[in-house]
Amino acid sequence: MLQRKQFLRLFSGLIVLLVVINGVTWISWPLRKSTLDKHFRPEENAPEYAGWDGGICNHLLDCYTLGTWEFNPGLTKTMIHERREVDKNILENLGFPRELHREDGRCGQINRLFPSGLPSLCDEESERPCCNEATGLCGNSNADCLCPYCKDFSKYFAAELAEWKPSSQECPFELFQSESICALLDEHVSDLVFIGDSFIGHLFLTLTLLITGDPIRGALRSTLSEEEKEQCSGEMQFFPGKHSCHLKLIRDWEELDANQLCNGKPVRFKSHFVEAYNVNQFPSAVKTVKNLLGKRKAIIVLGAGIHIHLNATMVIEKYLVPFLSLIANSDDDRPLLIWANIHQVDNFLTSDSVKNYSPIAKFNKEMAKFCRARNIPVFESSMVTRDIKSNDGQHVGYGGNMAKVQILLNYLKSHFETCQSSEY
Asked: How does DSSP classify residue 48?
């Protein structure tokens, strides 16, 4: 009997020891792995996407979208002030007041601007940059800046004054210019097609400005008058405004003059933008995908949702599923599909942020779940855009889109030249 009790005690002790050891191992295991491991972990039992292989490279985008902004070296107060004047000009062009704050220091939904009727923010340059919506007053104390319905407007900055830097050394990051873009695409890509809403159109626009080496007029149609080109030059290319500049942009690189693309050198790749932001436009998007089947190195960057009431089910059923069916049923070479989730901006009142963020975050989560389960790369850019200024409360300008395009180009370079799944 004694031996049996001793055995049970010994056995119980071994069990406890194993549990403790296993617990320590389980707790310490993630610390021994790469800090980015969770972002590269493939979906369990994920069905193979009907494009390139799944696995680590389909999570490579996360490596580039985790990072921080660093202000440009030598940035001065004068440069910051000049940038703010540019932003005020953009606001005016969009039909907004040049100043979004009141002189009496009141803010919030109950304190509106006259005559626009917009809710008042707080002056980021003042000593009271924080809006406390509970009191309706601008301030600078913790009670004004850190409460649940407070917003510190001094923390938001113009992306044009900074550069995006991925956090991990595992993600080699270079700043692409016209020559390096041409070399990358000419070697690895036949067609780079952007399909979706204005967020996706801005990616095509920014890439066009980069590859032409002309950020001032690089995406404007050559048939425009000199007056129209002047009205829509520079950053006005990103905003519709009173001159409807969004209607004066090229949508296909074949519209560029021969010497605008890669300094006139012959290239084998093409790129264009297909506007398809609602259900009625989906057939044209499907037609575009059909035309890409059989092209050995085609890439599709796809994104929509804002104009479809953030209805993930509808986007999946009416948009993505037809695309995937076409690709899966094709015996020809298959394009790579990249889904771009909706970016988020935050430089407005907390009450508006709460109202806008929740449905966008829910939509992005549902879309990411669907795509990742099928090894479709997901471009999550909210970490990139959240702390930068948006002039219209939705879109980002040249600086924010430049960061997103540089991320996309670096992802493609690593995908092609590092990942085994880049083999065709």
From this structure: P
Q: What is the DSSP string of 293-347?
A: TT-TTEEEEEE--GGGTT-HHHHIIIIIHHHHHHHHT-SS---EEEEEPPP----
Q: What is the percent of the chain where pLDDT is above 70? A: 85
Residue pair 157/385 in contact by the 8 Å Cβ criterion: no
Q: What is the pLDDT of residues 164-191, one digit of tens each?
A: 999 888 788 999 999 999 999 999 999 9
Cα–chain-centroid distance for residue 413?
18
Q: pLDDT tens across 327-371, in order?
A: 888 876 789 999 999 999 999 998 888 887 789 999 999 999 999
Q: Give kind and range of the element (H or E) at residue 354.
A: helix 350-372
How far, in Å, are 45, 205, 295 from residue 151 at the CA level? 43, 32, 49
Q: How far is CA 354 from CA 345, 348, 374, 393, 397, in A?
A: 11, 10, 31, 13, 23
Q: Are 288 and 277 in contact (CB under 8 A)?
A: no
Bridge partner residues of 378 (DSSP):
339
- Chain-centre distance for alpha carbon 128: 31
* Nearby residues of 310 by Cβ (< 8 Å), 6 or more positions away: 359, 360, 362, 363
